[in-house]
Amino acid sequence: MSKEKIEFTSHSGNLALVRRRVRAFLEAHAFTEKDRLLMVLGVDEACTNIIRYAYALRDDQLISLSMELGRGCIRIRLRDYGKQAPKNAFRSRASKFLKPGGLGLHLIRNAFDKVDYKLKECGTELVLMKKLKDQAAGPNAKETRSFSKPKKRAA
User: May I ask the CATH class of domain 3-135?
Assistant: First the structure.
C-alpha cells in the first residue's frame, strides 16, 4: 500500500506545492489523465474552501493532507481545525446556475466517486475516494484513445 502525508499552512501560496504532490502521487496509479486533472482540481478547490471558510483567510493555520492506495481505490483526506460549516452548506448548486459559490462542491463531487464530510470535535475531515479504473493495467498504464470509422454493412 502506498501512502503519503503532508502538512502545510493555510497560505494560498502553498496550493501549487499541494497540486504538484497530489499529481505526483496519482501518476503512480492507473487513472486517465482527465481523472488525474479533475482530482487535482478537486483537492485544490477543497483546500481553497478550507482557507476561505474554515480559516476565514488566515494564512497560518494547519491543513493536513493524506493520500493512500488501498482496497482498489485512492483515498485522500483533508483535515482542518477551523470553523465548521453547517451541514446544509455541503450541498452544491445545480451546475446550470453559473454564479460564484457552490460550483466548487460540484467539481469535487464530479472528480471523486465518494465525498464524505466528517465533522470533528474541532474542525472537519473531508474524505475523497476514487476507484481505480483498471487494476489489471498496473501502475504504468497510460490513457489510450482510438478512433475508427464505423464499418458499413453490406445490404
Answer: alpha beta
Domain extent listing, the chain = 3-135
Angle between helices 15-27 and 33-49 (to 10 degrees): 150
pLDDT digits (tens, 9 = 90+) for 12-39: 999 999 999 999 999 999 899 999 999 9
Residues of the chain with confidence (pLDDT) below 70: 1, 88-102, 134-155
Cell of 6: 503532508
CA distance 107 to 121: 27
Report the Cα 112 to chain-centroid distance in Å.
6
8 A C-beta contact, residue 67 and residue 4:
yes
